[in-house]
Amino acid sequence: MATEMDRVDVVTVGVGWTGGIVAAEAAKAGLQVVGLERGRERGTEDYQHIHDEYKYAIRYELMQDVSKETLTFRNSRDQRALPMRQLGSFLLGENLGGAGTHWNGQTWRFLPYDFEIRSMTEERYGSEKLRDDDGYRVQDWGITYDELEPYFDQFEKTAGISGEENPLSGPRSNPYPTPPMMKTRILEMFEEASSNLGYDPIMMPSANLSEQFENPDGQTIAACQYCGFCERFGCEYGAKSSPEVTVIPAARETGNFEVRTHSNVVEILTDEDDDSQVTGVRYVDTRTGEEFIQPADVVVLNSYVFNNYKLLRVSDIGQQYDPETEEGTLGRNYCYQIFGGATGYFDEQFNTFMGAGALGMAFDNYNGDNFDHSDLDFLHGGNMAITQTGNRPIATNTIRPDTPSWGSEFKKESIENYTRTLRVQGQGASLPHKDNYIDLDDEYTDAYGIPLVQLTYNFTDQDVSAQKYLAEKAAEVVEEMGANEVVVDAEISDYSIVPYQSTHNTGGTVMGDDPETSVTNNWLQHWDRDNLFVVGAGSFVHNSGYNPTATVGALAYRCAEGVIRFAEEGGRLEEE
């Protein structure tokens, strides 16, 4: 029998970026908040001397344990979905801080075009450009960039983001809190080449801070040391903005926030007398197996894309999307990301082993609708960038396409090219298609006997065209940089669950202004349960040509404001 805990104002399911933001804002407003985190406690002190590539980058020390919970995958409905036995294409975080601990720190705002993509595309090119008849389901987000801009600003100030003005992005109310990072020889070459080609390069906005910074909550973030151990690692210096050094301590300092680790939420509980309300959650202590019920006035789902979806589905909240009839909203609009780039081989040696997760330069001339799509067979585009993230020796084996993948020639090429190759890459948008969605598997279960999430996904014709276009544009930049040889990425075909591509999974619990096409309103409040909020990259209607974290952070601040308003007023939140 489950032990019932004392009722609280707010319970957050997950304590990463979104859970930390909601907890901090709600706790500062005087609400009593409990954060349920299924992983363990951790922080900067746990990452001292962690330059162990094998443990963290290869064996995934900070990632979800797929022996306990994974997902099944297939490209299409006529295939059998099989479980991921080892993380590959994406890396799901676990423990306090979630994926916000092991991210690179690249912190882009989505474009104004992203939030009104259907309206703006139809206005400029006509409705036929949306390709509804081909199964694409492009829709607006129910919120505009201008409405979300104050929340972007708030997230950047909390994280102390280092950056500079982007002439091709949306308008800003304030400059970045800290100056851009160091401009290295590699970045200078990219800047000169892309400027020569008529583009508008800028330093990448970075959560690896260029200088020490105290944020508005009084939390101090250190200056980056350019050690090159960002992605897949926690920062030993406290110089990469993450939940553990920003919003979580801010929430704790209020005295109104409690974190319970090793607490895996398995069900959202609905009021038996009023099915428009939830009453709390049921969770399991992952060490003892003991069950608990946490009553709360407000429940906020802050875990990763797949788990937010899963909790709604197993709790029978909302209608599952059916790709045959296209009825239902839960699980629809799953999107991922594409990458089209080129690698250049140089005589000159570079310090590629040094860097930071967001040390880079980029331009947006081929992102969003910043270029004419009239004669192109795809929409959107991608951010074109070069990064100096710190090539680590085990995983960095850049070889020419005709080189064997083992043996003496492989070793020779790997050593020779380790400091003599540079890559320019377009990070492309992914738009929703009716056949790409999330469901529950009817065969496989997790360690708690709950069905695994089933992912049905494949690259679309649009993805193939956009990836090829971006790769060709990247090759022009690499050639202008002076490479002796340029190798362009091969054209993509079917999506594969390996190798690693990005942890930029989106959709499944999308936001909007219509309950027929979305799971939440633009306050991230569930259409069917007034006191249930769902926020994260699952809220994205589609993916952009950027990393998702800044937009996730902005939505979390929007959600936090909604939670506080609901606690004060109750009922369905309306646009102001």
From TrEMBL:
Residues 432-556 form the Glucose-methanol-choline oxidoreductase C-terminal domain. SUPFAM superfamilies: FAD-linked reductases, C-terminal domain, FAD/NAD(P)-binding domain. Coiled coil: none annotated. Keywords: FAD, Flavoprotein, Oxidoreductase. The keyword Metal-binding does not apply. Residues 221-334 form the Glucose-methanol-choline oxidoreductase N-terminal domain. This is GMC family oxidoreductase. Belongs to the GMC oxidoreductase family. InterPro entries: FAD/NAD-bd_sf, GMC_OxRdtase_N, GMC_OxRtase_C.
